[in-house]
Amino acid sequence: MRIADFALERYFARWEFSARYLLCASDVQGYPMADLLALADDESRALWADLRLGYTESTGHPLLRREIASLYDTVEPDEILTFAGAEEAIFCLVNALVGPGDHVVATWPGYQSLYEIARAAGADVTLHDLREDAAWAIDLERLRGQVTPATRLIVVNAPHNPTGMLPDRATFDGLVSIADEAGAYLLVDEVYRGLESDPADRLPAGADASDRGISVGVMSKSFAMAGLRIGWLASHDRALLARVAAFKDYTTICSSAPSELLAIMALRRRDIVLERSRRIVLGNLEHLDGFFARWADAFTWVRPRGGSIGYPRLTVPGVGIDAWAAQLVEAEGVLLLPGSQFGDPGDHFRIGYGREDLPAGLARLEAFAERTLH
Ligand SMILES: Cc1ncc(COP(=O)(O)O)c(C=O)c1O
User: Fold this and answer.
1) Considering only CA atoms, which residue is closest to atom 7 of ligand 1?
2) Which regions in the chain score pLDDT beneath 50?
3) Which of 83, 92, 152, 219 would give a disulfide with 225, using CB separation of 3.0 to 4.6 Å?
């Protein structure tokens, strides 16, 4: 298989562990291991104490699948498959689902895996552009026109990376109908679910919404545990999950034994875990609102409706985001992610607000802006 470089990952490979302030990270500040162990209930603490480091069940620890299933309204534990992160879940699913002759529609800009893997598998991919002047909203009529008789898969990500877009309920229902009418699967990447800026905007999960809906989830984002590398698929289509499970035999085979137990502990206390993430994210969002209000003549700001990232644009004439971001990280150790890493040539950049040091990083950025943008 030949696949294009994952531009964002190459960029992070250069900067992630050297820049002082990752003001573009999409995950929430990693949960302290000691705090997680302190949350453990008796059963999971005993499993942890007795853990043997052998292979684990390929579909996922039964108790983990049970906890994950309970995140959904209608999904059974047997309708969950676990993976090494959402990344592997997407990789296996798309490879099992599409190939030459199949057509895929995916929103763009976006997390590169959500369209690149389909391309590498030989499918024909149509990108559904999200536009800033429409507040990044999905345009249902345009999307309907992009669907063809060969469309096998429609891919959306909500809340969305990098824009923070979250469809309203009517748009989400419209997506489900378009996929159902086309006889296509609807892959909903929900890794930021739970981080809606207003909890009332939370959407049904893709797997609950339709028999053709497939939810992708992960411990990395809303649950603040990217280091566990535990992700999953949820779907009522057990035959599809069986095909994906067979594909996974060629990737990781099974999940990390310690990670599975830690994920069980976390999901059992998800109220506490999610409350912490929401506190960090919503507090930081207020800082960003203040910054972008002060700098309205230099940046656009479509306030994210969910997630932990937004996608503003630098509007100062003669200043390009790639060069400005490069100077910023050299001068202040503050890392932004220019839109070029999404293949987006405009002057947008991703800003992430899941890290606890955001106020300090933002102060550095503001000092740099004072020196360079006035
Ligand atoms: C939308 C989206 N999906 C999937 C992933 C992959 O998550 P993980 O790296 O935890 O596998 C990411 C990570 O940034 C993401 O933003």
Assistant:
1) 86
2) none
3) 219
